[in-house]
């Protein structure tokens, strides 16, 4: 079968196509000549000459329907198809001329067009697509037309002038404006880059007029033909934003998580809602903090915290301890009765993913050292590393926004309605927590996860509901999460720092505590016992009333330390409030000490003056008594001086009673001799001073 095959003459290099095969007779045509016509050759002669079979030099092109190429093809095919009905006659010169002459009578095409299309049909594969024009060779694709003197493209019909051609120099100015200005920031519009390019053009060509400036159409065409959109977006967008929001997603979060508990994700946000105080609904207390812990495999919310603590290790600890423990008690505290099967997630996971925040510091070491949990932190500004938890914040808040007041609006509420949206707040913290618990339970038990990536071994009748995915994973993948004591987990998750031990008690952050175990050990005795100088203290920053002392490195060991009477002032406070009071007390003490240091030299100067005057007086007065007489008279001199002091300091009434005569004095014991015993208080100096007589 030699029809439509191409052969090459080894001696001349010419290529021929077989356009007819009848038994051993062949008709060939030179595929490279623009004047070739079919000529006869036998098969034996073809073999004897040694023509080599080669690949087709004109592979059949593909053409898009409705394109200009398809229209030209259909036009040529409609012209020569009547000739192809007499195919064998076309291979004979006289018959071919006769058929073409007859065709010219019924068509407006010239003879040259018919012969060219007929020759093209034979040379290029004898199919309708062989008549497609070689438009792919037009336009010098990929090579810009810079060596021009006149502007290419459409001519101006409204704007005056003829414009300026985009030469290599102008293209360089365009490139400078795009690379140095437009691609540097996504805030720069293309029009501003064009203005920058025009400014560069005017600086290089000062004599240029308004009619010879590059236009926006030229600038845009240059941009679209020389810059790929994907490259522009990558260059203009900051790397962390591109990686987070615009990069290609080639996998899923569940691909590398084998089952429930393989990885938890934890994150916090400030709720889009204002709350009021529980005791006084007229008081607005601000927006609460939400912490959620989610399981990546099942998408279940395994733990949560709703409160007023800022995002910190304390709030994260409460959320994690909630994730590790049974939720029935937690829900019962808010009046919600559930069974373990309604919220079955409790136990220790294999790993936890968090952002570069509260789990990045030493407090998180307890998760690794005591709970054997692998910690990993997301990259900076890469919330997509834990997108399961990040996306849930908007999901859960969208459920209550339409129903409650005090929701944060995207615009200033005062400008929008004349009233601040904070004033619409109606829920207190307990009510808001109860509402979120109900929404989380509905999410865990009813919500269908859109686009969940099922593994090949997961059954087709398994719905993408978090609780169903969790239960299936527990039964078929991971078995069961590791359990732990809730109190031990909570205490060991508390932050810890060093405290000191002295005879007054255990001092931590300036506050003194006592401990029954430490008393039994004799740590506070004033006989300098063998007590440790520093101890490790775990504490809840929200309350100063109780801290926990770690006597050793065991997970189960801790002593409960209560607030000492010395520090009763700080009862019921947070450590932040206590630190504020301590700081204020230290400031007051420092101020008083500063005043003391300032006034003390004046007082000492007065003392020195008094002493100096006394010494001068002693030197000027010569004693009339001997030293022995002076020593013997101390007691008598003291009694005399005491009477002088009493007269000087006694209470003297300014009122005097006026009588005409003195009152009669009647003695009680007229027959007895009056005693000389004094009724004064005993003189303690007589007992204290030495007997000098």
Task: Characterise the protein shown here.
- The chain is α+β, with helices and mostly antiparallel strands.
- The chain is built from 23 helices and 18 strands.
- A six-stranded antiparallel barrel has the order 13-14-15-18-17-16.
- α6 packs across α7.
- It is elongated.
- The model has no long low-confidence stretch (mean pLDDT about 85).
Key features of this structure:
RNaseH_sf, alpha+beta, five-stranded antiparallel β-sheet, six-stranded antiparallel barrel, 693 residues, 23 helices, RNaseH-like_sf, 18 strands
List the helices and strands and how they pair.
Elements: E1 6-8, E2 15-22, E3 25-30, E4 39-42, H1 43-49, E5 52-54, H2 68-84, H3 87-90, H4 93-104, H5 111-123, H6 168-180, H7 190-204, H8 216-226, H9 229-236, H10 239-246, E6 264-270, E7 275-276, E8 284-286, E9 289-295, E10 301-307, H11 313-324, H12 327-332, E11 351-354, H13 365-369, E12 374-377, H14 387-400, H15 413-417, H16 429-446, H17 466-478, H18 486-492, E13 496-502, E14 505-508, E15 511-514, H19 516-520, E16 534-539, E17 546-550, E18 559-563, H20 575-620, H21 627-632, H22 634-649, H23 685-688
Parallel strand pairs: 6-11, 11-12
Antiparallel strand pairs: 1-2, 1-5, 2-3, 3-4, 6-9, 7-8, 9-10, 13-14, 13-16, 14-15, 15-18, 16-17, 17-18
């Amino acid at each position: 079968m030699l029809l439509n095959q191409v052969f090459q003459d080894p001696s001349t290099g010419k290529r021929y196509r077989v356009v007819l095969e009848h038994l051993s007779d062949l008709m060939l045509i030179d595929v490279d000549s623009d004047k070739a016509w079919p000529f006869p050759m036998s098969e034996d002669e073809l073999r004897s000459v040694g023509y080599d079979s080669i690949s087709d030099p004109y592979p059949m092109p593909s053409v898009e329907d409705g394109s200009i190429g398809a229209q030209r093809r259909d036009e040529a095919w409609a012209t020569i198809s009547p000739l192809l009905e007499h195919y064998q006659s076309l291979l004979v010169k006289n018959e071919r001329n006769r058929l073409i002459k007859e065709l010219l009578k019924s068509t407006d095409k010239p003879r040259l067009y018919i012969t060219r299309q007929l020759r093209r049909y034979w040379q290029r594969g004898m199919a309708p697509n062989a008549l497609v024009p070689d438009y792919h060779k037009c336009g010098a694709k990929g090579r810009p037309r810079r060596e021009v003197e006149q502007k290419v493209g459409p001519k101006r019909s409204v704007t005056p002038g003829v414009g300026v051609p985009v030469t290599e120099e102008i293209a360089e100015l365009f490139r400078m404006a795009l690379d140095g200005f437009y691609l540097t920031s996504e805030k720069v519009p293309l029009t501003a880059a064009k203005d920058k390019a025009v400014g560069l053009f005017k600086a290089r060509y000062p004599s240029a007029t308004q009619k010879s400036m590059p236009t926006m159409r030229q600038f845009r065409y240059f941009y679209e033909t020389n810059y790929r959109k994907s490259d522009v977006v990558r260059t203009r967008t900051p790397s962390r934003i591109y990686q987070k929001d615009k990069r290609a997603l080639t996998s899923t979060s569940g691909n590398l998580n084998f089952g429930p508990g393989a990885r938890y994700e934890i994150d916090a946000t400030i709720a889009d809602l204002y709350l009021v105080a529980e005791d006084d609904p007229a008081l607005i207390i601000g927006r609460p903090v939400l912490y959620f812990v989610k399981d990546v495999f099942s998408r279940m919310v395994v733990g949560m915290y709703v409160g007023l603590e800022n995002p910190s290790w304390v709030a994260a600890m409460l959320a994690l301890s909630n994730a590790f423990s049974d939720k029935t008690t937690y829900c019962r505290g808010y009046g919600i009765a559930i069974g373990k099967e309604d919220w079955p997630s409790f136990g220790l996971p294999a790993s936890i993913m968090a952002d570069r925040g509260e789990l990045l510091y030493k407090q998180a070491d307890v998760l690794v050292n005591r709970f054997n949990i692998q910690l990993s932190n997301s990259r900076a500004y890469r919330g997509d590393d834990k997108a399961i938890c990040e996306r849930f914040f908007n999901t859960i808040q969208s459920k209550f926004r339409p129903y409650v007041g005090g929701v944060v609006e995207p615009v200033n509420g005062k400008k929008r309605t004349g009233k601040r949206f904070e004033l619409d707040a109606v829920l207190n913290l307990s009510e808001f927590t109860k509402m979120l618990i109900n929404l989380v339970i509905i999410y865990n038990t009813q919500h269908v996860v859109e686009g969940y990536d099922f593994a090949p071994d997961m059954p087709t009748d398994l719905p993408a509901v978090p609780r169903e995915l969790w239960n299936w994973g527990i039964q078929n993948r991971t078995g069961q999460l590791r359990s732990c004591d809730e109190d031990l987990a909570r205490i060991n998750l508390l932050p810890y720092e060093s405290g000191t031990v002295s005879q007054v008690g255990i001092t931590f952050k300036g506050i003194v505590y006592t401990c029954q175990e430490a008393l039994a050990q004799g740590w506070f005795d004033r006989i300098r016992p063998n007590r440790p100088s520093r101890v490790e203290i775990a504490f809840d920053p929200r309350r100063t009333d109780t801290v926990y002392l770690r006597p050793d490195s065991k997970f189960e060991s801790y002593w409960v330390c209560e607030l000492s009477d010395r520090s009763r002032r700080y009862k019921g406070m947070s450590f932040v409030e206590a630190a504020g009071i301590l700081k204020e007390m230290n400031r007051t003490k420092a101020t008083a000490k500063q005043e003391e240091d300032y006034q003390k030299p004046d007082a000492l100067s007065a003392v020195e003056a008094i002493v100096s005057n006394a010494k001068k007086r002693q030197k000027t007065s010569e004693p009339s008594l001997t030293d022995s007489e002076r020593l013997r008279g101390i007691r008598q001199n003291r009694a005399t001086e005491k009477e002088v002091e009493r007269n000087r300091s006694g209470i003297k009434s300014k009122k005097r009673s006026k009588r005409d005569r003195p009152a009669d004095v009647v003695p009680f014991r007229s027959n007895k001799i009056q005693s000389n015993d004094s009724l004064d208080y005993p003189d303690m100096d007589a007992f204290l001073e030495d007997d000098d007589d």
